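Lab notebook: predicted structure, single chain.

Context: the supervisor wants predicted structures on file for every construct in the current expression panel, including those that have not yet been purified. This is the next one on the list. No modifications to the sequence; it matches the entry in the shared construct table.
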Amino acid sequence: MKGSVGIVETKYVTFANNEKDFIKLDSGKEFGPITVAYETYGNLNSEKSNAILVCHALSGNAHAAGFHKSIGHKPGWWDDAIGPGKAIDTDKYFVICSNVIGGCAGTTGPSSINPETGKPYGATFPVITIGDMVKVQKLLIDYLGIDKLLTVIGGSMGGMQALEWALRYPDKLQSSIVIAATSRLSPQSIAFNAVGRNAIIRDENWNGGDYYGKVPPSVGLSIARMIGHITYLSDESMHKKFGRRLQTRNEFGFDFSKEFQVESYLEYQGNKFVEIFDANSYLYVTKAMDYFDVATSYGKGSLEEAMKLIKSRMLVVSFTSDWLFPPYQSQEIVQALLKQKKDVTYYNIESSYGHDAFLLEIELEEKIISSFIDATYERRERK
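Prediction complete. Output recorded below exactly as produced.
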């Protein structure tokens, strides 16, 4: 029977406390200390062979399932997928989710205090990559005493991390599940990110990234989120949800007020995002996504060559109406894996929800994900 993991708690651990232990970022910069916020669900078995790492998308955090403080509070961002009897079954598996480096939900990022100055890092925070996010996750997995993950799974930016894991640490995971993701951002995706970052940087309150304790660049961040949110939807879903319906009037007012329902919706999404996210983190995390290109990083420009490194089973999932990371980008990954004779399974799920489908189409994803994870675990147990 499906259920909730119940009341959960975010935990914290700090790595690289001493300069000799600083991690080397992909930029070449040595950095530390790094505090990581994480949550776990289910129980780790005695062999430590049932661990699953869940990687979050741009606006996500470590709170992937269950409730903080009491039932009735807002559940974790992937609560529909994680729990007893769900797609990622916590009756069987030990599930881990951590906030990425550069984020703003407990893990060290631009809003964290720089121990050298006693002030927030702001724009002095080092530029990071998806690979750096995975390096920090690896520190956490080692800390938990897990030698090899059963599965790494994620959607969108989380899917990029799942793919990065399979390439950077091929001997440290049994399988990888890449959902609604890509092997590299297209020029269109980079362009949307660039416009969002410009909205923040050109907000008069951004102040070169030094706005903590002052008026934050809320207008810029809100606009950035509005732009981003459009890419998460689809033409069909927007027609169904809003059409050309007006918000309060029965006819046009011939002014610049927010007349259409879609305008009001986007403003709501932007304002809500400002309450939970840091503008500098938005700059750093979107830049990390822009840099992501596994063909260049691992294959000297060839995606097929990069896939030689992968040793894990792979599940790739895309959605028909996703125009941010359209199905052809997932299919490029699959074709490169097949050419290298890797163990890969692919599903292109029919959905009208656009990129957000990976969060909304849980019923369609559940059987695919659970069957793949169970089969991977059974294979491991037979060895």
